[in-house]
Amino acid sequence: MPSRRALIHASTDPTEVVSIFHDQPCYYCLKCSTPLALQDELVSKSFSGREGAAYLMHSVINVKIGKSEGRQLLTGYHTVADIYCIGCGTTVGWTYLKAHELSQKYKEAKGNISLRRKGL
């Protein structure tokens, strides 16, 4: 199982899938079926993404991290970076790099993946 301390298992080669789990339930990219997260890494189903419902994950896999930017979200201002599927390049959500409000610090170093971008 991936470490809960490490958010991203990413590759410098955007075409390289670095983690595949044949024997564990995963969430997958809807476009190319690349595994994005193990179901055991689920923190909460009560999150929102740009296009609606999203899941907060302890860690995500097979993604590339975009540039850091400040974003005003429903729960306050956060520093985030979009995450992209390394199989197809689709934006699948974002990672929380910094929460600026104390009550939101639990999100730091976690990934938010959109339900419209992943399979169940």
From TrEMBL:
A Pfam match: Yippee-Mis18
GO molecular function, one term: metal ion binding
Residue span(s) of domain Yippee: 25-120
Entry-linked InterPro entries: Yippee, Yippee/Mis18/Cereblon, Yippee_fam
Protein family per UniProt: Belongs to the yippee family.
The protein's name: Protein yippee-like
Assigned keywords, A-Z: Metal-binding, Zinc
